[in-house]
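Provenance and format

Records in this collection were gathered into a single text stream. Each protein contributes a sequence line and a token line. The two records reproduced below are adjacent in the stream.
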Amino acid sequence: MGMIDPVLLEISAEEVESLATGVNLVWMLAATFLIFFMHAGFAMLEAGQVRSKNVANQLTKNMLTWAVGILVFFAIGMGISNNVGTILGGGSGSSALTQFGVDGGYDMAEILFSAVFAMTAATIVSGAVAGRAKLRAYVTYTFLLAAVIYPVVAAMVWYAPGADAPILDSLGFADFAGGMVVHGVGGVAGLTAAWILGARMDKYNDDGSVNIIPGHSLTFAVLGTLILCFGWFGFNVGTAATVFNPESAADGVLELGDFGYVGSVAIVTALGMGLGALGASSVSLALNGKVDTLYVANGMLAGLVGVTGPTDLITPMGAIAIGFIAGAQLPIVFKLVDEKLKIDDVCAVFPVHGTAGMLGLILYPLWSLEGTAIGGGVISGGILSIEASAFAPQIIGVAVITIWTVAATAAVWGAFKAIGEARVTPDHERDGLDLAEHGVDTYPEFGGPDVATDGGYTDDKAIRTDGGEVNEEKRSSSELRADGGEPNDGELKLVTAIIRPDRLGAVKKGLAEIGAPSLTVTNVSGRGSQPAKKGQWRGEEYTVDLHQKVKIECVVADIPAGDVVDAIADAANTGEPGDGKIFVIPVEGAYQVRTGNSGQDAV
């Protein structure tokens, strides 16, 4: 690449080296921060795929993964990785077991860069064990993964100071940005932990049939996916390049580093992402007749995982092929795991991170930059560009990493299970881990109150947030009736209405206009004349016969119940089945807590 003569810039060799180091450091830290931001993506993706009663638990696990993992990797994991790598690579000498004494400049930045990769592997596991794992068991496993399990894998592929090369690297195994070291480890570990833990309650029937348990928010899942896609460029492209060559900079010459292929890495990453979504979409359409949204999201990630390992080794045609294959295998492998193996992998971490990472590394020699081109002229390197000698090392590397990860993970979760510490109790699982493990409710209320908390009206006759005003005349108990009687024959009446959620605003306004703004609203579901619908979750169809509704309860004394019924009916009517029903029930008594009033005065 081009060189810049320092004489022309009138700077010394020391200044050139300092400039190169600073630019390289900024590049590395920018990539590190992008990868760290992926934790936000994992948190949203996983939270969207679990039920609402487990959202806080999933978010907490993601935060604690980083909190525990960064300390453990810094204090133990990086040292273990360096020393194990040296021993397995046949080198001599030893490295420090902790990183506390490392130089505070470039070396510390490299440790942080390594740590964000390690924590990515750790956080993947949380999605597989969602909804039933004890928090203490998960945190302990994260400690061990960051301290030993991941560092041993990284030592076999990436880290071996004092040795000629890490042991798997010396055999010819290549994993550029962690398709197997990071994602494969996370996916395999997640599947193993989910197998040891067992399925969520009610996931499988006695006859082996599967009950679909949809997650609570596709919006969260898709947002998390796109955040991960954004951070992934730090994962791959950040690994690909060093801006300036440190060796030439030491001699006083600015020479561009690995930027000669950084553009290729970027386009391979982008193509893998897009083709993964297309692959998953195509198979979803073939299997179910519809393009499942979650499969599209998971397919984007599977495509990225597929090209992450060989991202510097494959042609753009390879990115297209591997990305599509990684996305296409996702629905098939998920159904195999879910329906045949009966392993409850909640967030599909094995087909997204496990098999996608394996396939990318095993198949890459078909589209290798170093291979022999076949069908040239299509896209750089031809339709195929085969490097046959690379198949065996890739298969061996994938097998060794898989065996180690399964054995270590099974030992840890098996020990937890043996002492009864792996899984929450059935009661806690039924109530949700948000309450059982954290004492919180992620969605504690159905909207905020629109009216005064005592059910009365404000002294200053403030305009209500529903757009209506308190009608003092309508509330007057001295209102005369043509028949000489009193509203509701002097009794209290409870009007209960079950309506469509989208009509709630119109109903509140209608009630305010007749002087009955006080009401209680509850989020409910029910079944009536409205036809059942079909839903899909990862391509599996399930029946939706309990429709989302809201229940409005309004106790009236001086407002005729008939007027309330009419106001609700007019506002809630759409003319379609499922508009709801209204019930009027006598109320025996009432008591207002704040004032002590009872009977009609309480209302």
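Adjacent record:
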Amino acid sequence: MSEEGLERLATAAGLIVEWEDSEGRPRRLSDAVQRELLARLGHPAGSATEIAASLERLRPPALPREWPPLLTAEQGATTPLPSPLPRGTRYRLVLESGERREGTLDDDHGALPAVDAPGYHRLQLADVELTLAVAPPRCFTLADACAGESPRRWGLAAQLYALRRPGDGGLGDTLALEQLARHAAESGAAALAVSPTHAMFSADVNHYSPYSPSSRLHYHALHAAPESLLGEAAVAAAIERSGLAETRAQLEAQELIDWPRAAHTKLTWLRALYDEVMQREDAEARRARQALATFRERGGAMLEAHCRFEALQQARGERDWRQWPAALRDPASPGVARFAEEHAHAVGFPAFLQWLASEGLARAQATAREAGMPIGLIADLAVGADAAGSQAWSRPTEMLEGLSIGAPPDTFNVHGQDWGLAPFSPQGLVRSGFRSFIDMLRAGFAHAGGLRIDHVLGLMRLWLVPHGAPPDAGGYVRYPLDDLLRLVALESWRHRAIVIGEDLGTVAPGFRERLARHGILGMRVLWFERDDDGGFLAPGQWSRHAVATSSTHDLPTLAGWWAGRDIEWRSRLGLLGENQDADSERAERRIERSRLARALRLVDDHVPQAPLDAAALPASQVLDACVRRLGVTPAPLTLLPLEDALGLEEQANLPGTLDEHPNWRRRLPDDADRLLASPETRERLKVLDEARRQAAHDIQEGGHDE
């Protein structure tokens, strides 16, 4: 077979054959990896005949009837069409408002004239009708939300499951989130970023990583707090009937979340509560049933599919739907419809849970805004979903089978990473009119004033790893970046919510500039903001187009880094590199502590530089200085993780581990109502608030204090 033909096919299928790694070194996919990835993408390339056939199937559309059902356009700009039509071809555009416009295509390529109204419009031309999604040129921004040119605001970042309140049953819920939002706003916070609230597996309570959900189209039922909708008495009665009061109290007293036990306990009494609501005939129960019915009607087929999946999975006792009988693997099959009819009460229970979770998140956002936050909650959108979950079952043609999302080898992960998540199919997205992507954005924006897109690099390209292969045997697959950015901008404005893109890792040249032009804030983390000599960047050198933060859920906390807790964990679990040992890591950390202390001006620059032990300076003093440093950067928004606001040493997640480290299980040390009340925490937040005010003043004055 010809190497030229293979590369033509790879390019046509969206494989990125050549790229730069995290160190800027050129890399190239081997022919063998190209053929393997192409086969998994549905484009066989084992021979010249297969390549030719695959290329023919990938040819661009020649006729309007071959066009995808949705085209994207930028507000105020002409739009090229998927295949050329003669100049003068007439079109009709029906705007969302109902207004009708008619005209003719212009220029030699028959482009659609500019449309000035953003929205999802109906375009009719050349005997086809499709959706034209017209997007503003950029997202809704913090300046839009704050009605100011150069806002310098701050917020907190919380792991929702880690929050505490009396009666939470051992894991964080939306009532605790309400309490935290209220107190954060009182301290001056403009936003509260939370961990993903995506739907998990009710039938598999051992699976609880928030970044590996069943579906990103729905919500995490275990974060629901039905007290806010149905009253404390109804909840107490359900717990009493279930005989779980003592178990619930035990779970609340634990320092770490016992996910299987806490989930089983909560789902048991939630089921009792659901049964009671559906059976009672008093006015309160009837109102609840009516509200639930309205919610289900509004959720439509998408919600119904998730509820059927949850009930099927529970009934079959088999987690992976791909192992179910063929009649149940198709959500549109008569077998699934028959199951739903015969088990209507069971299918209704997941709908009840979704109603509770959705309403709880809506209340938390309303509380944040009423307390004075201009943004309120910032939701977190995971980069992928579990291939065995509801999203992949309900919309399989939009997902890729046999491939998982990961990351190429880099300095921190020399063998690369395989996250085990199912990716969208680039062609499936286009063929479906980006249905799941739009629905996913809407679910994320629905109860929030902002959305953090995890691994936003995936809008342009994803590192996909064939099942059974090591991560370094994967490759980058291109995604329709222009379309996805336009849809993000359109939904951002429709929900009047800001967008943050987690852009850490191997970043393609020019990608961050694209994000900035589209009004998407990147992320800058204290540990990574260094100069060419390895020193910490001065605050004034930080980006004005990114959120400033001290750390992330996958990295050490400030206090943990200062104390070397991350080194202790990695040494204990054998996670240090081949040429590393704990002693050399500790020696390097002493040098890094010295660099940070000098950058923070906590040691005298005139004293000869010497490595610092953790005991040389109190951790609280270092934390306060780091917080002030983050505050005076020109970043529009500074996000401080709760762990750093409280001075905690342990991080939420340690990459490369499953059960060896208590990932996603740590609870915060106090109830949400009292969490920010200690003198040390209040003073730290005051330091941050004052630093942000100083940064805003410096910007207005045209300078910056470095």
